[in-house]
Amino acid sequence: MWWYWAAKGTADAANYTADFIDYKTQSQLLKAQAKLYKMNAKSTIWEGQQNADKISREGDQAQGTVRSDFGASGVDVNDSQTVASTQRSLQKAVNDDVFATMYSAAKEANQQTINAKMAKYNVKQLKKGFIFKSIGTWANNAANSMSASSMLSGGGS
Questions:
Q1: 57: how many CB neighbours lie within 10 A of its CB?
Q2: Residue-range domain boundaries for the chain
Q3: CATH code, residues 2-147
Q4: Residue 100 contacts by C-beta under 8 Å, 6 or more apart in sequence?
């Protein structure tokens, strides 16, 4: 009967090895996922800044177009309520677009950052689960060893 306990101990060791490989694989995948989320967050902010800059540049060009279009139609662009009102409306629209673009980018980047933190948290939880599982496996293995040695020394049939 000792052979049963010895085989059981060997099976437990094999289970531990498989669990360890599974833990390491999942852990590395989660760490890579966390890095990817962080890179995505940085990329999103950068892209948002680029888009906001583009909107701002296009707004500046549009401001110049407003002045030249009104000027071409004979309006005194330096002393016209219509030109000033049009430019204010245009500037407000540009500012609103810039804000919306940056807000959207920041919101997405924040979600990516939260995802990165969750992936890191999952790595910690995975490690805790592996440690507790391996303690159970090795405690079981030790009990099997004692049973096998007790059988070998004549304690069993």
A1: 11
A2: 2-147
A3: 1.10.287
A4: none
Which two three-digit tokens encode residue 110? Answer: 């924040």
CA–CA separation, 41 and 105 (whole Å): 9
Question: Mind listing the pLDDT tens digit for each residue in 102-113?
Answer: 999 999 999 999
Burial 102-133 (b: 16+ CB within 10 A, else e): beebeebbeebbebbeebbebbeebeeebeee
C-alpha angle 16-22-25 in degrees, rounded to nearest 5: 140
Regarding pTM above 0.70, the answer is no
* Model confidence pLDDT, tens digit, residues 38-71: 999 999 999 999 999 999 999 999 888 887 888 7
